[in-house]
Design a protein that fits this description.
This protein is of the alpha/beta class. The chain folds into two domains: 7-174 and 345-371, Rossmann fold (3-Layer(aba) Sandwich); 184-333, Rossmann fold (3-Layer(aba) Sandwich), CATH 3.40.50.2000. The protein contains 16 helices and 13 strands. The chain has helices at 15-30, 50-56, 72-90, 102-114, 133-144, 153-161, 175-183, 189-196, 210-213, 216-230, 244-249, 266-274, 285-293, 308-311, 323-333, 350-362; strands spanning 7-12, 34-39, 63-64, 94-98, 118-123, 147-150, 169-171, 203-206, 235-238, 258-261, 278-281, 297-300, 315-318. The protein has a seven-stranded parallel β-sheet, sandwiched between helices. Strands 10-9-8-11-12-13 form a six-stranded parallel β-sheet, sandwiched between helices. Strand 5, helix 5 (133-144) and strand 6 (147-150) form a beta-alpha-beta unit. Helix 1 (15-30) packs across helix 16 (350-362). The longest helix has 19 residues, at 72-90. 50% of the residues are buried.
C-alpha cells in the first residue's frame, strides 16, 4: 500500500457490500491510492463474510467492529459508536459506503456529523416502500452523500426528484456485475453439486427479508410456497442466519425435495446458481446476478428497487401464493435469454470508472456532467 497521499476508507457490513467493493478497491489500488477496509461485522458468520474476502481477493480489514446481530436500533447504535472511533483514528479524506444495509446508514451519519466527505456506491435505487428498512437507509444515505455513484439510469431521475444536485451524481454502471464478470471462468457448478450430492435439475432459494421471515404467519406462507416449488423440482436453500429459526419453525427443514445447507462463499454460490433451472429469492443482488447469468428468477416481494432486472432480464415479482404456479411456468419455459443487450454500463468496467472519479476528486478536479458514465 502506498505510504503517502490521501487515504480512502471503505465501510463494508454485509456480503453484497464485499462484492460491490472489490472492483472499486482493485481500481483504486491500480491508481496508487492509499486505502483500507472497515469490516463492521454486520454479517459475523465466517461463511457470510470471511470466505467472501478470500473469494474476492480483498485485503485484510484495518478494523473489524464485530457488531453482530440485534434490532435495527441496537445494531445501528453499535455501528455509530464503532465507526466514529475508526474514522477519527484514520482521518480519511474520503469514506466509501455501499448498498443499503445498516452499516451504510451508520457510516453516512458518522461522516456527516464529523464533516468528512463520503461517497455512496449504488445510489439512487428506490423501491418506494418505506416499510423496507433498506429503503430508509437508501434515502437518508443519498441525502447526506457528497458523491453518488449510480448503477442504472432510473437512479438519476430518482435523485433528481429528491433535489440532489447533478454535480454530485455519476452514472457508472454496476460494480457487482464487474465481480461476476471476473468470476465467470471459475463458476463451475459440478464441484459444488458433487459436494452437496445434487444431480439433475434443481432450484436455488435465498430467503431472509424481514417482511418474509420475521412474522410467523408470513414465514409459514413463504415456506408453504417453497414446498409447492419443491414438489416440482428439488430446491436447495443456502440458509441465511437471519430468520433461520423462524423458517425452521415454519417447516423449512430437510425433507424430500428440500435441502437446507449453510451459506456458501461467493464462487460456490454463483456456481450453484449457474447450474440451476430456477432461482427463488427475496434478495436484491441475486436479481442482478441471475439477469446476467440468464437463470429464471422469481422474487418473492411486492416491489423491487432493481426494476431493470424485470425489464431487461429474467426476473419476475411474485407473491407467495403465486410462487408455485410461477415456478411451474418458468420450469416449462426453460432457460431464459435476457431481452436485448445487458443494461447500460453492465460491462465489467464500473470499478475502474468509480476509481477514476474518486482519484480525480482527491486531486481536486471537478468532472463535468458529460464525463459521467463515459469513463472507460
Amino acid at each position: 500500500m502506498p505510504q503517502e497521499g490521501p487515504f480512502v476508507l471503505h465501510v463494508l457490513g454485509a456480503r453484497p457490500n464485499f462484492v460491490k467493493a472489490a472492483p472499486v478497491v482493485n481500481g483504486l489500488a491500480g491508481l496508487g491510492v492509499r486505502q483500507g477496509i472497515v469490516h463492521t461485522g454486520q454479517h459475523y458468520d465466517a461463511l457470510m463474510s470471511d470466505v467472501f474476502f478470500a473469494d474476492l481477493g480483498l485485503p485484510e480489514p484495518v478494523a473489524n467492529l464485530g457488531v453482530g446481530s440485534g434490532s435495527h436500533a441496537q445494531q445501528t447504535a453499535a455501528l455509530l459508536v464503532g465507526l466514529e472511533e475508526v474514522v477519527l483514528a484514520h482521518r480519511p479524506e474520503l469514506v466509501v459506503v455501499y448498498g443499503d444495509v445498516n452499516s451504510t446508514l451508520a457510516a453516512g451519519l458518522v461522516c456527516a456529523k464529523l464533516r468528512i466527505p463520503f461517497a455512496h456506491v449504488e445510489a439512487g435505487l428506490r423501491s418506494f416502500d418505506r416499510d423496507m428498512p433498506e429503503e430508509v437507509n437508501r434515502v437518508v444515505t443519498d441525502a447526506l452523500a457528497d458523491i453518488l455513484f449510480v448503477t442504472s439510469p432510473d437512479g438519476l431521475s430518482h435523485l433528481s426528484s429528491e433535489g440532489i444536485s447533478p454535480s454530485r451524481v455519476h452514472l457508472v454502471g454496476n460494480p457487482m456485475i464487474d465481480s461476476l464478470f471476473a468470476a465467470l471462468p471459475k463458476l463451475d457448478p459440478k464441484p459444488v453439486q458433487e459436494r452437496l450430492g445434487v444431480s439433475g435439475r434443481y432450484a436455488v432459494a435465498t430467503l431472509h427479508r424481514p417482511a418474509n421471515v420475521d412474522e410467523p404467519e408470513a414465514a409459514r406462507e413463504l415456506v408453504d410456497a417453497v414446498l409447492g416449488v419443491a414438489e416440482q423440482v428439488p430446491v436447495i436453500v443456502p440458509l441465511h442466519p437471519r430468520g433461520r429459526g423462524r423458517l425452521a419453525e415454519a417447516g423449512l427443514v430437510d425433507r424430500d425435495g428440500l435441502k437446507i445447507i449453510d451459506p456458501l462463499g461467493y464462487v460456490d454460490f454463483l456456481s450453484l446458481v449457474r447450474g440451476a433451472v430456477l432461482v427463488v429469492t427475496d434478495s436484491g443482488g441475486v436479481q442482478e446476478e441471475t439477469t446476467m447469468l440468464g437463470v429464471p428468477c422469481l422474487t418473492v416481494r411486492p416491489n423491487t428497487e432493481r426494476p431493470i432486472t424485470v425489464t431487461h432480464g429474467t426476473n419476475r415479482l411474485v407473491t407467495p401464493a403465486q410462487l408455485p404456479a410461477a415456478a411451474s411456468k418458468a420450469l416449462a419455459d426453460g432457460a431464459v435469454t435476457p431481452s436485448g443487450e445487458l443494461p447500460v454500463l453492465w460491462d465489467g468496467k464500473s470499478g475502474p470508472r468509480i476509481a477514476t472519479i474518486i482519484e480525480a476528486w482527491l486531486r481536486g478536479d471537478n468532472l463535468s456532467p458529460a464525463s459521467r458514465g463515459a469513463l472507460a
